[in-house]
Design a protein that fits this description.
Shape: elongated
Largest sheet: 3 strands, antiparallel
Helix content: 25-40%
Structural class: alpha+beta
Number of helices: 4
Order of helices and strands: EEEHHHH
């Protein structure tokens, strides 16, 4: 099994090293991926101590790769929305056509996002 693309039922979003994303730290705009090297807790979905959110190297620390909230045993940050590059890929790539056909709400949500951004 690969970790290129999967789905996180806790945070309700796509994960994996094939998924471009923003660092989930609220004051960071770094582009990362949602692969294992960026997950808080160093394990899929966060393991025993992590929240399972995804951070750039500046916002993960220690052997367990924990974010500041998890290191201090505080509630997690809010998850950031999907990266525009990932939304565009899911909305237009032929490999996602079958998935789009089964999820018409994505097309509606994407068109609203596109109109709001002027694209």
């Amino acid at each position: 099994m690969g970790w290129s693309i999967g789905f996180d039922v806790k945070w309700h979003r796509d994960i994996g090293y094939g998924v471009p994303a923003f660092c989930d730290h609220p004051r960071c705009h770094a582009t990362i991926d949602r692969g294992l090297s960026c997950v808080c807790g160093n394990d899929p979905y966060g393991g025993e101590r992590g929240c399972g959110l995804y951070f750039c190297g500046a916002h993960l620390a220690g052997a367990r790769s924990l974010c500041s909230r998890c290191r201090n045993r505080r509630p997690p940050f809010a998850a950031k929305p999907d990266h525009p590059e990932w939304i565009q890929h899911k909305a237009t790539d032929p490999s996602w056509a079958k998935w789009r056909a089964g999820h018409p709400e994505f097309a509606s949500e994407y068109s609203v996002t596109r109109e709001a951004s002027g694209r």
